Amino acid sequence: MNINKQLADILARDWWLLLLRGLLAIAFGIFAFAQPQISLVTLVIVFGAYVMLDGILTVWSAFTGRTEHEDWWLLLLWGLMGMAIGAITFLAPDITSFALLFYIAVWVIATGIIEIVAAVRLRQMMEGEWMLILAGVISVLFGLFLVAQPGAGAITLLRVIAVYAIIFGVILVGLALRVRGFTRGMVV
Q1: Interaxial angle between packed helices 40-64 and 15-34, expressed in degrees from 0 to 180 and rounded to the nearest 10
Q2: Domain residues for 178?
Q3: Which of 88, 109, 110, 178 would you label with 52, given CA atoms 20 to 30 Å apart?
């Protein structure tokens, strides 16, 4: 079986995980935007919970597709990275906004790169791969923005993170709905 078709089959089978990840990102973004007075410690805990859940869902997707896809380890790596960043935030909730900024930036850049690689591999197998590329590019650009603006205040950082999470979530929801049935019309 073609490697790209295997990855496409995993995404189609687990489309609901993409949908759930997108909805979680939107919920996190709305929560962060609606709570401008939120403390940095609370932001760290909410961010940690979101990243941990996202990582768990991605690991689940990797393990459910491991027998069908040789590159399942990419999803596993992606998920484990999210879980590690989530664990770091829980273990040190009193970290400074500067450290949080770099935790987020590293996670977002790495996630974006993996999304772009996955989309490029899928471009001949499905329509709408541009959504995953767009999500990856937005992730990388957002991560680079965070690295370039380390002195941003907690409220400004919170709003930027909220906007990113909502945009990213909407793109994932759109991708999930698009991928839900794409294996029926796939080019082999």
Answers
A1: 180
A2: 3-185
A3: 178
